[in-house]
Amino acid sequence: MKKRRLAAVVLCAAMVASMTGCNVKTKSDVTSTAAPAADQGPTEADPNAGVEIGEVNLKLLYQSSDESVANVIRDELSKAGINVEMSAASDGATFREQEGNGNFDIAFSSWANPVGTPDYGCRGIWESIGDSNLTGINDPKLDELVKARFVEMFGEPVTNPMGWPVHRLSEYIIFLTSGSRGWSKYFTDAGEIFITIKNVKDCKINLNDVQYVTPPQNAEAKRTKVQEGDLLISITADLGRTGVVSKEIAKCGGYINQHLTCIRLQKEILHPLYIAYYMESEAGKRQFHRKNQAGVKAGLNFDSIKSLTIALPPIEVQNSFVSYVSQIDRQMLTIRQGLDILKMLQKSMMQDYFESRGDGK
What whole-number distance in Å separates Cα of residue 185 and Cα of residue 112? Predict the structure, then answer.
């Protein structure tokens, strides 16, 4: 199937051209520039000149419940001369399976945005271990940017130079539990999500390598089922890894194993993402280290979790941090998309050139 990469370029260009000013040509544009009129005089060399685009085909993956939106995407791409193969997944589990196998060129899915966390969608896609980072982006500089913003807005958590009041986490916990043991008998290839310690790190939940389960219908399952906005913290082995449950995970159904604790907070006072960043800062890491000193084996109990202390800015300031992160991430996303478009276009054109040379053209 020829020119699939270039088709992706055309699609991305259509999405971000208005924001980036990137002047990437469509199929018709390139075709018209490939053969200038005879009466035209010498013009500046066009890097697209002489490139034959050929038939462009894309496979669009979507859930059947999103068919109306998928039809709009198909119609708009068709206007650009792109043939779209519609691939409808009957349910969320089937969609995730096809998505995980890479059985698509473009995919339409929900935009996760847990509990007033507008930055989550951008972080999930563009950070190195984002749970929606299906393209494999890995840029430590982008990861560090978010942490730098936290210190800029709240000060260094260890010294608390802004003088935020310090409280025990227990004052704002409305629900606290740990996960289940012995769930291997419920493992399946598709179904609901079983979150383990490997999935929780850097204030997010990474679903790139996730285990699915068919949960039992009992009190244990009800107790360990997560809700949107729950804060997860690792309590054994690598202590203090954090993640916040997204709307998408909660909708699909998610359960935790025994190495994680689930904390439900008073969200009108504490933003779970702020607490996640605080706990993964040096101030949080030092607390986890101290509380683990008495034990031979790494581990935290509920009393240890409840006794954790936090600097508590007003919720408006916490929300401002989240909004600021979202704004910057959108700008970074636009810049990165523009760069990716240029790189993909260059690669596709080079491929076209060498293919034509190989055919003796």
Answer: 30
For residues 127-138, b (16+ Cβ closer than 10 Å) or e, as one string?
A: bebbbbbeeeee
Query: Does the residue 27 lie in any domain?
Result: no
Instruction: Please answer whether residues 287 and 307 qualify as being in contact, where contact means their C-beta atoms are separated by less than 8 angstroms.
Output: no
Distance between CA atoms of residues 64 and 69, nearest Å: 10
What distance in Å separates the CA atoms of residue 323 and residue 343, rounded to the nearest whole number?
Answer: 30
How many structural domains are present in the chain?
1
Confidence of residue 26 (pLDDT cuts 50, 70, 90): very low
Q: What is the pLDDT of residues 1-23, one digit of tens each?
A: 433 343 444 444 444 333 333 33
Q: Is residue 248 part of a domain?
A: yes
pLDDT band at 186, cuts 50/70/90? very high
Domain that holds residue 284: 156-311
Spatial neighbors of 295 by CB under 8 A, at least 6 apart, are none
> Where residue 101 falls among pLDDT bands split at 50, 70, 90?
confident
**Which range (27-31, 141-145, 286-290, 291-295) has the least confidence?**
27-31
pLDDT of 54 higher than 60: no
Is 249 a domain residue?
yes
**Distance between CA atoms of 238 and 255, rounded to whole angstroms?**
19
Instruction: Determine the 3-state secondary structure of 205 from DSSP.
Output: strand
- Residue 86 resides in a domain: no
* DSSP β-ladder status, 56-63 and 106-107: parallel
